Sequence to fold (195 residues):
Amino acid sequence: MDYCVSECVRDPKCSSVLYNSPSQLCKLLRCLLIPEYIIPDTSENGWDYHASENACSDGWFRFEDHCYFNNFTGSKWNDAQSVCNQHGAYLVEINSKYENLWLDRELTNGFYCGVSMWHLFTHERNRWIGATDIVTEGQFLWSFSTTKLDFHNWRNGEPNNRRKEEYCAVIMKDGQWNDLKCFCNQGFICEKNLF
Ligand SMILES: [Ca+2]
Ligand SMILES: [Ca+2]
Fold:
């Protein structure tokens, strides 16, 4: 277990570990497991669990120095922003292809700590992100930072402002972005600083 924990300390993306003493298998995880998400196999088959001190709080995923929360159930874009604010966070602002890739792999494809969580999905796999052009059509801004997009990953032909009523952006299940009507219900991703 000590070896496993020190591996986690060395890895900036590691938040917790699962260690199996019979097989000496060590799994580094990118978030803290919350009890109801721990897969049934783990504790029963000799797996020990250890949480890092430099981890995001329960249910939040760590990527570099930020923590992310994945909402499955769906809200309007404004309500999603409010929920994030209540947690001291904001709708995710995706600043690089690495952040986009990580979000796609960890949060939009149904994995939690690298474990498939499809059974928990109650909503389609779009996630609201913090980009909107509600202020000036065609000029997307990050709503929390009020800055122009420093990175984008629009799907071909997007943003298309379909029917002239699409002002809020989602990241889709393939990691590409689309603009949608802000008042439709979508899942969303909150982001905040780890430290
Ligand atoms: Ca970010
Ligand atoms: Ca669109």
